[in-house]
Amino acid sequence: MIGPGEEIRIPHTTKQVDWEAELGVVIGRYGRNMTKENARSVVAGYTIFNDLSARDVGAREDWPRFKSDWFAHKSFETSAPMGPWIVPVSSIPDPYACKIDLWVNDDHKQDANAGLMIFNIEEQIEYLSARLTLRPGDVIATGTPSGVGRPHGTFLSPGDTVKITIGGIGELSNPVVAGI
Q: Which of 42, 50, 82, 139 is 20 to 30 A from residue 4's alpha carbon, by CA?
C-alpha cells in the first residue's frame, strides 16, 4: 500500500496497469462468521482504495483449469494506493450514497456511487468472515464501478496522475512513474 501523493511505480513486467476506484471498508474489531445483519458492527470506517491491476500479467497458460493468476496482477509494489484517511462509520451513515469519481489526468473515467457495487458491504463481510477471521486494520476493497481502462485498451503511463474522490471521504491523488 502507498498513501496520498506517493508514486505509483509501473513495473517493467507490465504495459497494462489499470485503475479501479473503490470504497475501502476498514475493519475495527474481530469478526468471524458474521451475518448480513451484524456485519457492519465490525466496521470502523471507510477510506479510498485504488485497486490497481496489471492486466497483461494475469494469464497463466500453465493453469489451464483457472487461466488467471489474480496474485500476479494485483501484487506489484505500489499497487494499492489508499487514503487520505479513515472516516469513522458515524460520519458516513449511508456508505452506499457515497459518490465515486476517478480521473486520469483531466479525463473523468469513473462516475458512480457505492450503491452500484455487485456485492454489498454486508454480503462481502459475511462471505469473508465465514472463511477467515477479520481483524482490526484489515481493509476490504469493495469492487469498482464501470469506467476502468481495459475495455478501451487504455492504461496508465508514466507522467499520468490518478485522482479519486469519494463523497464524505476526500481525495486520493497519485502520480504515475516508471518502476524497475
A: 42
Q: Using CA atoms, how far apart are residues 103 and 84, in angstroms rounded to an integer?
A: 16
- What 3-state class would DSSP assign to 152? helix
**CA atoms of 3 and 174, how far apart (whole Å):** 8
Q: Report the DSSP pairing between strands 8-10 and 170-178.
A: parallel
Separation of CA 94 from chain center: 19
What are the chain's domains?
8-178 (3.90.850.10)
Average pLDDT, stretch 41-57? 95
Radius of gyration of the chain (CA): 16
Q: For cell 497463466, what's the residue?
A: 60
* Phi, psi angle pair for 102, to nearest 5°: -140, 135
Span 102-116, pLDDT tens digits: 999 999 999 999 999
Helical residues (DSSP H) of 26-180, grouped into ranges: 70-74, 121-129
**Among the listed ranges 94-98, 102-106, 137-141, 143-147, which one has the minimum average pLDDT value?**
143-147
How do beta strands 161-166 and 99-104 pair?
antiparallel
